[in-house]
Amino acid sequence: MNTLAGIAAVVVTYRSIETIDDCLARLRAAEDVTEIRVVDNGSDDGTLTSVQRHAAADSRVRFIANPDNPGFAVACNQGAADSHAPWLAFVNPDCLVETDSLARLQAHAAVLGDALLGADLVDEDGVRDAAARRHDPHFAAMLRAPSAARLGVPVDASRIVQPVQAISGALMLLPRALFERISGFDTGYRLHAEDLDLCRRVREAGAAVAVANDVRVMHVRGVSSRSKPLFVEWHKHRGLWRYFRKFEASQRGLLTRCAVFALIWGRYPFATLRALLRSSQGGL
Questions:
Q1: Last residue of a domain, one of 223, 244, 266
Q2: Rounded distance between C-alpha atoms, residue 156 and residue 194, angstroms
Q3: pLDDT of 283
Q4: Are 232 and 131 in the same domain?
Q5: Number of neighbouring beta carbons within 10 Å of residue 227
Q6: DSSP-derived 3-state class of residue 114
Q7: Is there a single domain that holds both residue 144 and residue 180?
Q8: Is the per-residue pLDDT at 225 higher than 60?
């Protein structure tokens, strides 16, 4: 244990049976984790049975079983509200932390002061996740140049802690006081873009957003989304439209707003088709 205060790890599950057992075993072994809150959004694949086994074996593990799926943002806020530790870590069920991952993130964040920190996310083959380091979406720029849709930011190998505009919601750590100051996740998002929204509001509140390049965590992407690709794509595009309306639309004219609407929703059929093809091929 280091001298910093404890961490409450919040895990939101939905049909996460492939990875939830390993995820929770690693969180239970992780340094400085004093509470683990699992919020399940109506899984029907045995996820809750696995969570219950961990809860029976470790008093730090508690779960909330939602009868339906109110969305990722709602569930994250539920888990945070049900815990008390002064630090919060939002951990996807397909993120597999090492024993010291969260403690090292916490140490970096404490040095920065008010900060939201992410890790160097990689897949099973060690390939970096581009979503770990991002800049804000700029929809008017996307109309002028399709390359602007790529939000990924290159790794700055010269920096241990790299400031960025946004990090991935797959793994986020921040002080509870900061999370409460910005009123948590925006529950108007159902799935996707709520992490971009949170990062932007953290920065608007005067806090830092950064990635710890020396903390590597495996992220087995898409475990939950494979079972409902149409649902995922619908809410991904809905989330992007909400983000645009919230942060950029007021600065744009009617023509640009209509063009952005067409850009986002015109992409939806093609994204859905790709998602269905990936799902039929087992996520490859």
A1: 223
A2: 25
A3: 45
A4: no
A5: 16
A6: coil
A7: yes
A8: no
Concatenate the DSSP letters of all residues of 185-224 into one string. S-TT-SSSSHHHHHHHHHHHTT-EEEEEEEEEEEE-TTTT
> Nearest-5° angle of CA 237, CA 188, CA 202?
95
Closest CA to 31 of 57, 5, 59: 5
User: For the whole model, what pTM was predicted?
Assistant: 0.90
How far apart are the C-alpha atoms of 173 and 90, rounded to whole Å? 6
d(CA 231, CA 122): 25
Query: What average pLDDT does the segment 70-75 reach?
Result: 95
Candidates 142, 147, 117; CA nearest to 132 is 117
Question: Same domain, yes or no, for 217 and 172?
Answer: yes
Amino acid at 85: A
**Mean model confidence pLDDT for the chain:** 91
3-state helix/strand/coil string of 246-260: HHCHHHCCHHHHHHH
Give the pair of three-digit tokens for residue 52: 């219950």
